[in-house]
Design brief:
Layout: H1 10-20, E1 54-58, E2 64-68
Antiparallel strand pairs: 1-2
Length: about 70
């Protein structure tokens, strides 16, 4: 099907999107923007092309964790 190394290039993403029949859109976000809040359901895939992402999540007991990416 599709082969990928550890890192995926923009060209790979565009090729895969054409093969799979979906459209990629670019979205710029500010430093303090929030992508998703609990209990919302994620309906998109996000690819970070520049910068960093900070991820927080909660376990089933409600304990919060910070994922460093």
């Amino acid at each position: 099907m599709f082969k990928s190394d550890q890192f995926v290039s923009k060209e790979d993403l565009h090729h895969w999107s054409q093969e799979l029949g979906f459209e990629l859109k670019t979205k710029q976000v500010a430093k303090s923007d929030v992508f998703l809040k609990q209990p919302d359901r994620c309906r998109y895939f996000y690819f970070v092309t520049r910068g960093f992402v900070r991820l927080y999540y909660f376990d089933l007991d409600g304990n919060g964790f910070l994922q460093r990416t």
